[in-house]
Amino acid sequence: MKLNKEEFLADVNAILRGDYACDLASANKKERYNALSKAVMMKAYDAWMKSTQSKQKRCAYFSAEFLMGRAIYSNLLNLGVLDEARKIMSSVGVDLGEFEEVEDAALGNGGLGRLAACYLECAASRDLPLDGYGIRYRYGLFRQTFADGFQHEEGDDWLKWGDPWSVRVEREAVKVVFSDQTVWAVPYDMPIFGYRNGVVNTLRLWQSEPLRPFDFASFNEMKGERIAEENFNATKITDVLYPNDNTMVGKILRLRQQYFMVSASLQDILRKYKKTGKPLSELPEHRVFQLNDTHPVLAIPEMLRLLRLEGLSFEEAFDICSRAFNFTNHTIMAEALEKWDALALKDLLPAVYEQIVTCQQKLEKEGADPNRYYIVKDGIVHMANLAIYVCAKVNGVAQIHTDILKRETFRDWYEKYPDKFVNITNGITPRRWMLLNNPEMAKEIDKRIGTQWHTELSELSKLDPVLTEMLPAFRGIKKKNKEKLAAYIEKAEGVKISPDFAFDVQVKRLHEYKRQLLNALSILYFYYEIKEGRMKDFTPTAFLFGAKAAPGYYNAKAIIKFINEIAKLVNGDEAVSRYMKVVFVQNYNVSYAEKIVCAADISEQISMAGMEASGTGNMKFMLNGTVTLGTMDGANVEICEEAGIENNYIFGARVEDVPDIKKFYSPRQILAENPALKRVVETMIDGTFDDGGTGVLRKLYESIVEGYDPDHYIVLYDFADYVRVKEQLLRDYGTDEFYLKCLKNLAHSGKFSADRSVSDYSRLIWHI
Ligand code: 26Q
After folding, report:
1. Which residues are CB-neighbours of 268 under 8 A, at least 6 positions away?
2. Which of 66, 241, 242, 245 to probe ligand 1 with, by most ligand atoms within 8 A of CB?
3. Stated pTM of the model
């Protein structure tokens, strides 16, 4: 796309006149944001229509979450007009940077939702016909603040800036029918711009609305037949994103959301497919579906139901589904695997439940051992099993994760269907996670190897011969990024950190398996070592955290409080704060991540081995030139394969060691043998910290030393090795050797481009 200054400003002014009865001279920031965005949208319509009307085979990515972040800069970048737009706006006195205030579209929790967003961008950039289908939540992931070190949640009113990057397509609304209510699903389409290639795919998000204006009488009649305790009016279905990450909450409203999204999407897709005149039996040659975890797996029985309404037999419908659907698993944690109460599901969606039961019967008829293979058992519906049984392909998200799925989680299914299982290692988009968030570094790379790496990230390895030459520039850019982040943190969090410190960062959702607690305990250990004079030459370090805890996750919230108490102790201690600062930033989100990732020296990826399916934050840091301080878990394993284990800092139990460790695990014994560790652990109960009389710190203490399964995530077991490696890392920090390791990681991050991931999906699964 090209922007002509006069023409573009005329467009912006015309929109301002029509929508707000003002012009550029009198408009406020929100009005400027909407008009500028709409003017760009208008210029992109032709390309959008052209891309969507093509007759090629398409894949539909079904996901309950799309963590899009802020659209404006990324869209301008991909359209190739970011610099032009900045110049044009500044010529009329508008700083494009003013839109940094615009709210993120946080329609996702964490990794799984951000992965969906990266995949859409990368597919468009590779000219792969991939469209997203999901939910237009009125409120996204809650906004987080701290008061007295405790997390508080507020509603995320992401639409308060307007939504100029979407169009409401009311003429394509469809009805979604539950046993107790019928609602409209109205689509909002967001264009997904490929990187400078003219391709525009679509993210279609459905919003629930009442039938009322059209059918008030029948709406009223439904009173009284509602399902007990959870009777909702129509708009409530898409009101809010469930704030859980890697834990399942069995609320009927969540089930309603899931069905709402898949029913609307499938009706929409089938309606359009039928218009082509092609037979339904050929659907999988033209349309395939990727199910992002179990959240959209109701699509399978819903498709069976819809196809049978078209007159197909169960066997015919099943055959179509088994060629069209594919399933990605993102977790091995038992508490995250979706299971629904069969009676509740039957109550809400009787005709859908019937299809699930027919799948179960088919499985039985095939003679499968009912102890090993089941979809409905003891009144529980197992969504992952339904997905594996029906889908053509099932994939894990990193090699170690896929291996665990085959060996453990889905062992029986793997034995029955070995060819269904494939690995597709996750990736990130290098546009948002380098070109956009770290433009100086990107330019430095361009100077040396050209720009092909923008769309072919493995090209970065061409930097290998010039890494040493690049060192001074790399140091300089990193320093600048750190200065910027430090300034931002001072403004946003009120804590001053020196850009001369090492920046040691752990940002990700708060979860016990991710072990933010391990990091916290090590910091407290360093604190006492410094304070009491045993550690004299500690490398000055800023320990940064960012994480949201699910509002109902007690221990996760306790860990936030604990870290905030440590921060207060450390930062307020003049003798020690010359060597270390601790900051837990509030409301960590995609936009905050963009600022943090390019300024980090150390990337903390310290989950218990075997627990983190992949991780994608680890990839963002690697691309931006940091070393990983991590366990052999998830994609960390592949990061070490690519960049060399000697260029990262690996510690702790390996996945194959865990069963033996657990056999005779005694946290108390570990504490007895390590008095320094005992002392920092006991700060949770000895009055060092004040938890406002809530008892959360004592409970946290008890979870690691007491009860039936203490320290489930072996924090104490891994502590000594973690501290040993972390001390080595901090000794190395700042040397040329250290920064060469950082650069080595950057240069070998090519595998982790989601351009590669979507090409793998296309080649191994979608065949688009
Ligand atoms: C399920 C049922 C009811 C309510 C909520 C949920 C729910 C919601 C979100 C369950 C899980 C999630 C999110 C999971 C997630 O983000 N997993 C992460 O996926 C990333 C992308 O593959 C991986 O890199 C991470 O390792 C994995 O933790």
Report:
1. 172, 174, 187, 204
2. 245
3. 0.97
